[in-house]
Amino acid sequence: MPKQNEPLVTHIYTADPSAHVFEGKLYIYPSHDLDHEMVSNDNGDQYDMEDYHVLSIESLDGPCVDHGEALHVKDVKWAKQQMWAPDAAYKNNTYYLFFPARDHDGIFRIGVATSSSPSGPFKPEPDYIPGSFSIDPAVFIDKDDRAYMYFGGLWGGQLEKWQTGSFVPDAEGPAPDAPALGPRVAELSDDMLTFKEAPKEISIVDEDGNPILAGDEERRYFEGPWMHTYNGKYYLSYSTGSTHYLVYAVGDSPTGPFVFKGKILTPVLGWTTHHSIVEFQGKWYLFYHDSSLSGGADNKRSVKFTELKYNEDGTIQTLDYDKLKG
User: Fold this and answer.
1) CA nearest 50: which of 88, 82, 76, 18?
2) How many CB atoms lie within 10 A of CB 28?
3) Residue 242: helix, strand or coil by DSSP?
4) Which three-class secondary structure string do you get for 140-164?
5) What CA–CA distance (Å, rounded) separates 300 from 12?
6) What is the spatial distance between Cα 27 and Cα 186, in angstroms, rounded to a whole number?
7) Which candidate in 82, 109, 199, 255 could, as Cys together with 128 as Cys, close a disulfide (CB 3.0–4.6 Å)?
């Protein structure tokens, strides 16, 4: 296995890792950055990914395997471009790959593809999930076998444009002193291909129960949601975007509300930060990315991992990126 805090693979650029244990192995579902020069902007046009590769690790002392192309945008009829951060889940003896992409109208939607193998290749459904929008799907299957999708991203992820329930191209976000926009959650149908109900906004509050405000950029939600459980509690973690932190909030229900608790990881090299948290072979790990392999290019990132530790009260010990070896 590659060393902690070093790129999992170096032959391609990878980002936005979603890590899961399937069939006793650790599978990582990243986005695949293209190796070319792009001008960065707040709309995210520099992230022009076209396909997905699946990575796997069988043991802590073994190699990281690239299983090759698992899905390409050309095979997704409804999608035009920008195959951004994906996630995967297993149910119904089937592996599901969930992914965002812009449709032919330039609107981000979320699609799903299926496979009999965790490494793919994946066959896409003919259309995106009805009622889906924005980016960064993360799917969590609870102990009662109910499955939930968390999603949403500001700016290029278009979340601000859906505040009315319909797409408003010129919509702006809330004022700095108003409650921040939360990620969305929707329970998935039993076949994992549709929503059981319309997506709902998740409430993230401070210790006193007050909503995190839009101007509180060190705590407010920006993108990259992830859900995991620890000691019976639900941990919603996410990126703050403009301030480049990975942070988390804790709740008693998979749909919230969630109480903000603190930082997981300080800013990495590169603009974006996006992660997943998984338990593997008795330890907890944070998967993340940075731009170290490319010398700092926003659109050429590399997936890394590091051990994650909890305090006795269930809080997560903050990791200082500058102190991580690699």
Assistant:
1) 82
2) 24
3) helix
4) EECCCCCEEEEECCCHHHCHHHHCC
5) 9
6) 24
7) 109
For residue 301, is it within any domain?
Answer: yes
Cβ-in-10-Å burial (0-12, 13-18, 19+) of 292 comes to: middle
pLDDT tens per residue, range 272-291: 999 999 999 999 999 999 99
Is residue 38 pLDDT above 80, yes or no? no
CATH number of the domain enclosing 62: 2.115.10.20
109 lies in some domain: yes
Instruction: Give a yes or no: residue 49 inside a domain.
Output: yes
DSSP line for 89-121: EEETTEEEEEEEEEETTS-EEEEEEEESSTT--
Task: Name the H helices within the chain.
Answer: none
User: 226 or 40: whose pLDDT is higher?
Assistant: 226
Of the candidates 172, 197, 174, the residue with the CA atom closest to the CA atom of residue 184? 197
* 35 is annotated as an active-site residue: yes
Q: 113 and 44 in contact (C-beta within 8 Å)?
A: no
Number of folded domains that form the chain: 1
Supply the DSSP symbol for 192. S
Would you call 43 exposed, middle or buried from its count of C-beta atoms within 10 A (0-12, 13-18, 19+)?
A: exposed
pLDDT in tens, 138-147: 999 999 999 9
* pLDDT of 157 strictly over 90: yes
Check 23, 35, 42, 218 and give the catalytic one: 35
Q: Which two tokens stand for residue 181?
A: 């926009």
**What range defines the domain where residue 158 resides?**
13-324
Query: 85 pairs with which residues across the strands?
Result: none
Q: Length of the chain, please?
A: 326
Retrieve residue 301's tokens. Answer: 């990132």
Pairwise CA distance, residues 52 & 122, whole Å: 10
Query: From the candidates 45, 201, 217, 279, which is the catalytic residue?
Result: 201
Per the listing, tokens 């975007």 go with: 241
Q: Is the peptide bond before 121 cis (omega within 30 degrees of 0)?
A: yes
